[in-house]
Amino acid sequence: MTSTRQALGEQESALRGRAGRVIPGGMYGHMNVAAFSDTHPQFMRSGNGARVVDADGREYLDLMCSWGPMILGHNHPGVNAAIVDQLGRGDCLDGTSPLAVEYAELLVDTIPAANWALFCKNGTDAVTTCVTTARAATGKRKVLVAQGAYHGAVPWCALRGEGIVASDQEHLIHYEYNDLASAVTAAEEAGEDLAAILVCPMRHDIKRDQEMVDIEFARGLRALADRTGAVLVLDDVRCTHRLDLGGSWEPIGVRPDLAAYSKPLANGQPLGAVTGSDALREAVRSIYVTGSFWTGALPLAAALATLTELRKGEALPIMERAGRRLRDGLAAQAASHGFVVNQTGPVQMPMLSFADDPDFRLARAWAEAAATRGVYLHPWHNWFLSAAHTDDVIDAILARTDDAFADVV
Ligand code: PMP
Q1: pLDDT: which is higher, 21 or 7
Q2: Domain tally for the chain?
Q3: pTM for the whole thing?
Q4: How far is CA 107 from the centre of its chain?
Q5: Whole-angstrom Cα distance, residue 189 to residue 144?
């Protein structure tokens, strides 16, 4: 038995009290842990490898990797060294760091569908830039998006929330992921006004089991884009680098015209990237996109170090091995405790749901029990593994999740 802890620590409670006064709701967006748990800490002080430490000094084995960014693990020495080295020379300068050119060269060399790259700060910037580029290239307005797919939290694509007006999304037409006929129907609805088909490498919508892409669907979207003159945009933000360094659809041989990347590009430093084909070079040059911090040197230094490390070829096999070990272990545990669970998606981006749990009561209880036993995982969003998830880390996680299953009643 691993030990349980009191739900929330003293520092955590004090910080929540203070935050409630100066940060609306105590916290907002996906980082609002109160929205999914009574036991997960809101505040974290540090992280190392596959471990994070909360404000009260409690350590957690981390299965979220900061919701994706930490692909090499927290506080990675090689990435840190690159950041510190650049810090001595400056971060935010009048002009772009030469590192941007070096990193663009490395990215273009890594991603077969990429003839060029441009950089921004996060995934939303990257996807928005893709859509703008597609409209500039085609002179059309309509964008096909999968029902329920997350592409960012700005008005043109946000899934929910007050303050969004219908006209913000009037040029989106929805299709069902992995249902080619629905995409064809959506394209027909767009008629002569179709600019882009936006798609994620797999279905990883919140609060539903993940779904791998059907190859025929992916090929069908490629053909649909070719037939209609629309731009095929792959939103690879969440899957970036974890499935394949060359782009998540590279293994199935379907190449997008534009792709958006972010999350783990710079192992936790803020960076997004758009890559594209030669055919879209002029279009992307014609749009106006920028931001005060888009050319900061520290994220570029971190990204170069991260991709150089990933290209050595060890990290992805470690994540896959860890993911299989975790999935097998959780399957055995769930069965031994009498639960039917669904484990979906690629093993390096795991997701576990309970059968007959439409309101996620069991998933939440299990995730909360895991947190009190020192494992940080989410009840209804996919998790992320990193190169720091070695066998001993997975075994330590499994020792605690077993007890967490026992806690679920
Ligand atoms: N697209 C996808 C598929 C994502 O998962 C996310 C982030 N969860 C985004 C876009 C937006 O990225 P960011 O939060 O970095 O702006």
Answers
A1: 21
A2: 2
A3: 0.98
A4: 18
A5: 10
